[in-house]
Amino acid sequence: MARGSLLNDIEKENILPFSDAGLNQTEIAREIGRSRNVVANFLIAPDEYGSKKSGGRPTKLGKWEKIRIMMMASNSTDSRD
């Protein structure tokens, strides 16, 4: 699923006063021209908004397996003699 663009600083600064003034999420979204979901996500945790790292596929190798492979590769002789 595609991700939309994050809120910029001006939009973030506008959302909190609107919320404090009593506007609901739908009204705030209309005012700033963004979706209700992005407004809701920002209002849940304003300080943490946009800091989540997007996950990827989990690695099959553990930390020690990676180290062992690197050690084996560094110990091998060069076959281009």
Explained architecture:
The chain has helices at 9-20, 25-32, 36-44, 63-75. The chain is an all-alpha fold. It has a domain at 1-52: Homeodomain-like (Arc Repressor Mutant, subunit A), CATH 1.10.10.60. It is rod-shaped and about 70 Å long. It starts with 8 loop residues before the first helix and ends in a 6-residue tail after the last helix. The mean pLDDT is 88.
**What is the fourth-level CATH superfamily of the domain at 1-52?**
Homeodomain-like
Biggest sheet record: none
User: Which whole number gives the mean pLDDT?
Assistant: 88
Count the beta strands. Answer: 0
- How many distinct helices? 4
Which spans of ≥5 residues are poorly predicted at pLDDT below 50?
A: none
Label the structural class. Answer: mainly alpha
| Rg from Cα | 23 Å
Helical percent range? 40-55%
The H/E string reads HHHH
Just name the CATH architecture of the domain at 1-52: Orthogonal Bundle
Strand percentage lies at: under 5%
| CATH topology assignment of the domain at 1-52 | Arc Repressor Mutant, subunit A
Shape: rod-shaped
User: End-to-end distance, in Å?
Assistant: 51 Å
Short précis:
It is found in: Nucleus. It is built from four helices and no strands.
Which short descriptors sum up this protein?
52% helix; rod-shaped; 81 residues; mainly alpha; single chain; Arc Repressor Mutant, subunit A
List the helices and strands and how they pair.
Blueprint: H1 9-20, H2 25-32, H3 36-44, H4 63-75
Helix pairs in contact: 2-3
